[in-house]
Design brief:
With 67 residues, the protein is mainly alpha-helical.
Length: 67
């Protein structure tokens, strides 16, 4: 019989799967410079997230504003 920990782990795994399935997909051409601070967006970030428009610092600020 499943105990509380097993049920919680199953629910956490389901929630993670749902979040991964619904994550934002970036498409398009990445900006070379951040649209907020005008600093260069590192090439690896641009390659990893096609269509990215902000540097990491500015994106963190944007996400912090939504909380």
């Amino acid at each position: 019989m499943a105990d509380v920990a097993d049920i919680a782990n199953d629910r956490a795994a389901e929630e993670l799967s749902e979040r991964l399935a619904n994550r934002v997909q970036f498409n398009g051409v990445s900006l070379s410079h951040c649209e907020d601070c005008d600093e260069e967006i590192p090439p690896l970030r641009r390659q990893t997230l096609p269509g990215v428009a902000t540097c990491v610092d500015c994106q963190q600020l944007r996400e912090g504003r939504r909380l």
